[in-house]
Specification:
The chain folds into 3 domains: 9-59; 62-85 and 107-152; 155-259, Immunoglobulin-like (Sandwich), CATH 2.60.40. The chain is 38% helix and 23% strand. The protein has helices at residues 9-17, 23-34, 39-55, 67-85, 109-150; strands at residues 155-161, 169-175, 180-186, 195-203, 206-213, 219-225, 237-244, 254-259. An 8-stranded antiparallel sheet has the order 5-4-7-8-1-2-3-6, covered by helices on one side. The longest helix is centred in the middle third of the chain and has 42 residues, at 109-150.
């Protein structure tokens, strides 16, 4: 007897990857994996979801700290070091018998080294602040993706590369409630400035323009508002083509990604 997967099986697998399922759902996923009729399909979907989750933080752009923060620290340290360096040494005691020979004031190496230590500490604090900001943004973005993948009303798509980009893959989440699209691309190369990737939905065999994006890194994430409610129809096939940025929304470029029919 063959096993058929329910309509929400991809959402359930997303929750499985994100550890957002209960014991009964875990047992159900493991049952699917052991079933010879659907086990390979379920395992492939789990691998794709896990790969998407693993690369999400890599697609985030570095966050620069405010320039005033570093400037204030460096200015305060420089002023402190300068004030310490120019403090005159105590004059030697004079005697009536012989005038003291002229001497060069000693270099305050200890104070200079202390000031340098403050500079190094300040820079380390600035770097730590930047890293904390990057991790905070990564967590916020992951939480948003978790919500998108786990929402039962959303449509999930796995897109595979065509002959034009055989190594490229993508995970696409269409939210009918929010009228948004979220795509996580892997190994989809950046395009020249005059080009852009465009997403299409095949609705009754006619392509509907569903937005555009341009990945900047090997793994990248983009989210935007859908321009047409028809993009939320289900089931449809989703396609990605490379187009000239100034061209009208009519597919004419190379097909680079497509979902299963």
């Amino acid at each position: 007897m063959s096993t058929s997967l329910p309509e929400n099986w991809q959402q359930l697998l997303a929750g499985y990857v994100l550890d957002d399922v209960d014991e009964a759902e875990i047992a159900l996923v493991e049952q699917w994996l052991d079933d010879p009729t659907v086990g390979d399909e379920v395992a492939a979907e789990l691998e794709a979801l896990q790969g998407t989750w693993d690369v999400l933080p890599l697609g985030l752009a570095p966050v620069e700290p405010p320039s005033r923060l570093r400037d204030r620290i460096l200015t305060a340290v420089t002023e402190s070091t300068t004030a310490q360096a120019v403090t005159p040494a105590s004059p030697p005691a004079l005697t009536a018998s012989s005038p003291p020979p002229p001497t060069r004031p000693p270099i305050p190496w200890g104070k200079l080294l202390l000031g340098l230590g403050w500079v190094v500490t300040a820079l380390a604090l600035a770097v730590t602040w930047q890293e904390n900001q990057r991790l905070r943004l990564a967590l916020l973005q992951q939480e948003a993706v978790v919500a998108s993948f786990s929402q039962s009303t959303n449509h999930l798509y796995t897109l595979d590369g065509t002959e034009a980009e055989p190594d490229a893959t993508a995970r696409l989440v269409i939210s009918p409630a929010d009228q948004t699209a979220l795509i996580v691309t892997t190994d989809l190369p950046s395009l020249p400035t005059e080009q852009v990737y465009r997403l299409w939905a095949l609705v009754d065999s006619d392509p509907v323009f569903c937005g555009q994006f341009d990945p900047a890194t090997r793994q990248d994430t983009h989210q935007w508002a859908l321009p047409d409610a028809a993009c939320t129809a289900s089931p449809v096939q989703m396609l990605v083509t490379a187009e000239n940025r100034v061209d009208p929304p009519i597919p004419a470029g190379d097909l680079v990604l497509r979902s299963q029919s």
